[in-house]
What does this fold into?
Amino acid sequence: MSFLKRLFSKQEKETLDHGLEKSKSHVFSKLAKVFTGRRVVDEELMDELEEAFITADVGVETTMRLLSRLRKRARFEAYMEMDELYGMMREEMAALFHEDNRSTEAYAIPKHAEGPHVILVVGVNGVGKTTSIGKLAQRFKEQGHSVLLGAADTFRAAAIDQLKVWAERVGVPLVAQGMGADPASVAFDTLQSAVARKSDVVIIDTAGRLHNKRGLMEELAKVRRVMDKVVPGSPHEVWLVLDGSTGQNAVEQAKQFLATTDVTGLIVTKLDGTAKGGVVLAISLQFSIPVRYIGVGEKAEHLQDFILDEFLDSLLPERLIEGLDSTDSES
It folds into this structure.
């Protein structure tokens, strides 16, 4: 696995701020009500924080873990600055993320002696899976990589057509068969083509349904077997796309996919149209899987590297008083 030092540009940070504006207003306003005017750190305050986090889509399990860590650090029955407690809270939130996310390094395409870097992308219909693949293709191409796409989500003709549109838009080749074709056959053809073309990275779209877990498991297992025959060790990554606007439903989807395949990274989409950005914390913690990218808009550049510090700065201002001032100015 390879990583690349990543610092957000001013434009990227502004895009992230704008994309998380609804979530910030929703999550921070709940926390602000708890902190404002308080001086004593006691169980009453912790109870109010618990309610605020749960209603902000952070989830019960994540909330309990977070408050447990915070209780160990806070000085109960003692007077302290609320900004100090707020800072502790932010630190403990960051500590709950996967270790890959607790840095300023973004995912970078590694080199393999035996062939291209292969990424399998899974997710239910409607979460933005195919669109995310198109955006990833553009991102990797702009980084100087040769990219090949494979349309192995053959359950829907629309998925194949949509990926064709993205391939043409980005200017990358696509391997596709017709609707109802064997996904493993498409994956096999895609990797053979990638080896012949000496492509740097292959992204394969598949598994757009969950109506039959056993069927999905068998299908993915077969896809993996044929991939490994062409490019040993592939797929190197399996990324699950989740719709952040569905809140805790996204957590349930992740559970179902993790029961069928090994997922190595997450892409959380549609965060710009929702106030449920807190679910990113719940997803990362419960499954101990790094968040690779988040979607904060429709354009290709709106699929951003997930950099934890930048995400928390946009969701929860570094200092409580700054957040209060910002919320007041927005309202």
